[in-house]
Amino acid sequence: MDARRGLKRILVTGFLIVAPIGITLFLLASFVSMLDYVATPMSIALLGRHVRGLGILLLGVLILAAGLLGSNIQGKHILGVLERILLRIPVFSWLYGTIKQLTEVFSQEGTAQFKSVVLVEYPRPGVHSIGFATNQVQVVGPDGTREELTCVYIPTNHIYIGDMILVPKEKVLETRLTLQEGVQTLLSAGATMPKTLETASIPPSSPSPQERPPTPGA
């Protein structure tokens, strides 16, 4: 029984290691095969025969062309029009939007929007959530008082759907996780979170009931 349980644990562990690699390679190979199939008539017309592996070359050309288009204003306009067309396709729009928003997190623009990985008490005191600090705002009250608040984005569905909350600056606990590590932690449901979560700043602790000022009239 113990041997069977151990074998099962090893198989599950192996599957969890191989599955992401296998799925990634499968999707990449499928995409290259599709490009190779599309390029077949062109290779026959130009060379008189089918050239295997032409899909890899076509993929490189496609990536280069996309990079050139995205590097200038006219190209960005063309890509924007193409993107709006793709977003009108029901199922494809959801898949495309999800992958695009996820990849944007790792892009230079995405890292500029996400300042740091933080820890805040949310949705209630005593419960901490991991989020991304995105901005600093100053709220001015009717009596002229000012309060510094931090805009924190807390994903609620992987990374592309979440809540934006405003937290007092002194109550935001900044971690030493990189943006990539923070995203990986959320996508893995916390499985990749380090056993020791180091912080760069510590907010002041909430006063105990004995330390709190008495309520007027008490």
Order of helices and strands: HHHHHEEEEEH
Taking the alpha carbons of the first and last residues, their distance comes to 65 Å
User: Judging from the principal axes of the Cα atoms, what is the shape?
Assistant: flat
Largest sheet: 5 strands, antiparallel
Strand content: 15-25%
For the largest sheet, list the strands in their spatial order.
4-3-2-1-5
Word description of this protein:
The chain is of the alpha+beta class. The chain has 2 domains: 85 residues, no CATH class; 78 residues, Roll (SH3 type barrels). The chain is built from 6 helices and 5 strands, in the order αααααβββββα. Strands 4-3-2-1-5 form a 5-stranded antiparallel β-sheet, with helices on one face. Helix 1 crosses helix 2. The termini are far apart.
Keywords:
218 residues; alpha+beta; SH3 type barrels; 2 domains; 5-stranded antiparallel beta sheet; 6 helices; 5 strands; 19% strand
Summarize the helices and strands and which ones pair or pack.
Blueprint: H1 2-47, H2 54-69, H3 73-86, H4 90-106, H5 108-113, E1 116-121, E2 128-140, E3 146-157, E4 161-168, E5 173-174, H6 179-187
Antiparallel strand pairs: 1-2, 1-5, 2-3, 3-4
